[in-house]
Amino acid sequence: MDLIDSETLYSLLRNKYVLLCGDSGMRSMYKDIILLIQGQNRLLTSDELKAKLDDHDMSTLNDQLLAGDKKTNDTSYYERRCYLTNTHFIKFVFLTRCFSGQMRNELREIAENKSIVPDIILLNSAVWDITKYEKNSEKEYAQLLEECFRSIRSIIPPQTIVIWLTATPFSRDARGVLDETRSDKKNFLRIRMFHINTFSSELAKKYNFQVIDLHYLLRKRVQHRCKDGMHYDALIHREITTHIARYISCGLNKNLLKYSNENQDDTLICYDIIKTIVNKIDYQISTFDKEIIDKYRPLNLKFPMIENLNEKETDILYLIDYYENNFFE
Question: InterPro entries from the entry (predicted)?
């Protein structure tokens, strides 16, 4: 795909307030966006991707740390950053839960100061919610996510573009936020993420948010995962920025067709986004995917916990196994 350049993104986001709320993946999206609008067409370095809080490698991005001083993988972690010039305002808030105190504070500030309202909100939250809050985590996630979406819709004006980004795929031995998660549970979570992403995507559609299904986009991009099995390299983040820009351009009625999928009918791109027609977004499978599933099924392979999976979950496990173990053959 053609990657968006700094001049195009600078123009697209000129005089716009962009609020990004989410985990470390969202922080990397924030970094890539502010790097581009500063006129730098290069990719983020690996050190810049990993940097957080007041790390030295954050200084190259010329933003400001608003709050946060404690490096930890528990739910007390907090980080707020912004990049502010006379033409751009890009803000990032780290979330350990979809409707955490940090998210509530952001919405409260917006409600109290109607003159400073985001033009664009990018939002994601799932892995921390499911792994760091053990008791009834999925049930509570579902309840809190709806409460979060309802609050956003009640406070944010209709012209604000809100984009929900699904959780990305991770490996069976992923580290970072999953350091304390048992290996068998990690493997199960990789399958559960399809259901969680489907739920969150459909809920986002209910509240008329746009959805970018990162899980679907990155499922076949195993070679771009970082060593921790959780995060992705700089090229992937530039591709994500390009997808985000395409959605924003449609919402703002600006032409960015140069950066559309070359195999997709350009006349349908904005129509699909505006109408938010996505059916079971996390279970989109290509003809090639179907061929893989058809080859796996007769083999009757034995995976851990496979006897507890339904047909859809089993198909998902087959695809995960294929793309992670046979991709380079």
Answer: SGNH_hydro_sf
